Amino acid sequence: MKLLVTANHTPFIAGGANYHVEGLVAALRRYGHQVECLRLPFHYGETQIERQMMFAEQLDLTAPNDVLVDRVISLQFPTYGLHHPAHVVWLMHQHRVCYELYDPKQASPALAALKPQVEAFDRRHLSGAKHLFANSPRVAERLHYYNGLMAEPLYHPPHQAEHFTCGDDWGYAFYPSRLEPLKRQMLLIEAMANTRTPIKLLLTGEGSQRRQLEELIERLGLGNRVRLLGHISEQEKRTLYAHALAVAFPSFDEDYGYVTLEAMLASKPVITCTDSGGPTAFVEHGVTGWKCEPCPQALAAALDDAYAHRAQAKQMGKQGREAYCAKKISWHQVVTKLVYSE
């Protein structure tokens, strides 16, 4: 088949979304399809978003340049506003600042005016898709709550899933992620100040909160136990997973959460929060990890539990790997659903 995959392009901002898009395109090609990826530039700002929605709605990809396209698979807002008779949406997330992150007390007049436009855009185009999938149960829940639409959760494996391994734990908790407020590294560092065991914490990634996190570590006197490692390679990341005692992922209302799946592939238990969204669909409290209240004391108790009962933590990690395998997460399943669903 001739397939088009549509997604956004945000210059100089990388993350899990890129792995998602690139992974899908590569999988479709492995299964013999002719695939092009159409990435539209995405700019934040209310005026720009209005223009981007209007532009997407004007795109008819039925036969660009007189080449018939069999199916279009859209992943991101607002690219799913385009037209094609066999248009499938695999929703990564909506424009979150107009939904679960919207705060009427903090919203600017421009954002308040944009919110109903985005909601109407989503209802109009997502309801018209030939098939509607979500990349996690949490994304599907939001879509149903805010727009009254039903989407089927469809899981995909993390980047280079086959390369994750498990090694002996070296007594640290590991958290790889962008250093941004929603990822809540600050909460985890505050938890480290409340621990009673000598567990260490390794944080990787870059982001807007780097300086604040450095200042917090210094203020709490945690310089010998908490380290900010910055950007690392994928191979280095897998090594840090392999030797972690546990993986911490206290992010707020995550869409899917590669960190959880990567930890399970590395046979490591996951420490997450009850309001962390995507990860809570995979972590079973006391079996494959810990679901904590989002406060320093609860996270500290989980960190201490992992360190004080290391054999149990190892067993939980093993059970996490088994739980991942039981879900049969694969690109084969993704391609079958997206391409052949009637």
Automatic annotation (TrEMBL):
A GO biological process of this protein is: carbohydrate derivative metabolic process
Q: Does the keyword Transferase apply?
A: yes
Gene Ontology molecular functions: D-inositol-3-phosphate glycosyltransferase activity
Q: What is its EC number?
A: 2.4.1.250
User: Keywords for this entry?
Assistant: Glycosyltransferase, Transferase
Asked whether the UniProt record includes Glycosyltransferase among its keywords, one would answer yes
Instruction: Report the InterPro entries cross-referenced here.
Output: Glyco_trans_1 (IPR001296)
Tell me which Pfam families the record gives.
Glycos_transf_1 (PF00534)
Q: How is this protein named in the record? A: D-inositol 3-phosphate glycosyltransferase
Identify the species of origin: Vreelandella titanicae
